[in-house]
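ugh ok fine here u go
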Amino acid sequence: MENEGSNPEKAVYVEKHTFGFWYVLLLSVLVVLYVALTIGAIVKHNWGTAAWAAPIGLVLIILMVNFLRLVFEVTDSQVIFGFGLVKKRFPRASLMSCEPYEIRFGNYMGYGIRAGLDRTVAYNTRSGPGVKLTFDGAKRQYVVSVDEPAYICRILAPGSQPADPAP
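structure:
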């Protein structure tokens, strides 16, 4: 398993998730509409429309690229999770609890980085399995979409030794 970018520490576990096909398709259509609106406004010399459509299209493109992939990584000393440039990093030593958690759309009313009705903050790309993490000093608990919550909680348990990830 390769480490992502700036973290020189060896990864014990890395898991990556992308949003589903229909979600990406919907966002892509929205981006294409704003780009087409901007190009049409420029061709027709309608600078007022181009002035507001172009920045919105650009922001949508940046958000789509940044939030396309969720990464969950455990190293010997850190737990890191997030989308693109928006990541949370916590020392493993500050982890107070890890438990399997079932992510439900109704609790977060969407996907991405969402505040839950149960006062958690979710980093999710789908409904389904995840882990609920409690860190010392954090204001809220974090919920992250993962495929193997029980395995992740085992490797994060105090005193656990790095092990080969489950296949």
